[in-house]
Amino acid sequence: MSTLADIAETQPMAVMSLNQRMADFEAHLKTSPPGADLSGLHRDFSVFKEHVWSVLSALQLQIAELSRSIDIIEMRHRKKFLLLGGVPESPSEKVTEIVATILQTKLGVDVTTSSLTVCHRLGAVAEGRVRPILLRCVDNTVRDVIWRTKTKLKGTSYVISEFLTRQRQSTFSAARKLFGVTNAWTMDGNIYIKLPDGKRRRVFGFEEVVALGAEHGRQLDGEAPLVSNSSANTASAQASTRSRRTTKKK
To answer: At the top level of its lineage, which domain of life is listed (predicted)?
Structure first.
């Protein structure tokens, strides 16, 4: 069975192949001798082209919807976790003890090593890069307290963030680049932006953020969207329209 990644990888190749075949078809029409009856060929080509694009459009919409559904499921699981960044790394470190101490002394949260069911560095070791720490509390209410008091870390090297999916992290990063670090934030895995006109907007994807940036005269330099086809853009816009709402202030 093909995975979503397989489908996403195969789709551009299929589009390229079909474009080439249609280009060859059109070239054949242009090189046909004068006076040749090509009415049937023209008609067949039009039918073929219309059918191909209708199938591709449906496929693109299905992929966009499937991707969105998978992202929602994955984020539902990730909401139980938090990321603690800016903690110096050493080979002999005892991560759980370090995290418990930081949460106690910097946030005033009553956390012990036994309060954390998950506490480890995330990702492979890389020179010059301090890996964030992934943590999960036994009690989700403690997790919520940590999240609410994270502003106490201001002025330190530490930062608490949500464990976003790759798709949401890309969207969030784009939002911060376009509208500023203080004007983009997350809550329960959802991404919000404060627009230049003061309105607060929940966004659902990279394309939507880029479009909002364009509306306000801003654009990303040297960065391409995750999805560039018009059908997926339409699906994203439809989802955004259904779910868009004005949010409360932070």
So the answer is: Eukaryota
CA distances from 173 to 60, 176, 200, 220 (A): 25, 5, 17, 11
- Residues 154, 205, single domain; the answer is no
64 and 118: one domain?
no
For residues 150 and 172, state if they share a domain: no
Scored b (16 or more CB within 10 A) or e, 10-31 reads eeeeebeebeeeeeeeeeeeee
How far is residue 209's CA from residue 53's CA, in Å, rounded to a whole number?
27
Q: What is the pLDDT, as a whole number, of residue 235? A: 41
Task: Answer for the pair 122, 68: CB distance below 8 angstroms, yes or no.
Answer: no
Question: Which residue positions in the chain have pLDDT lower than 70?
Answer: 1-9, 35-38, 40-41, 222-250
Full residue range of the structural domain in which residue 135 is found: 80-162
Separation CA 232–CA 119 (nearest Å): 37
What pLDDT sits at residue 222?
Answer: 62
Q: Does 98 lie in the same domain as 38?
A: no
Contacting residues for 86 by C-beta, under 8 A, at least 6 apart: 130, 156, 157, 158, 159
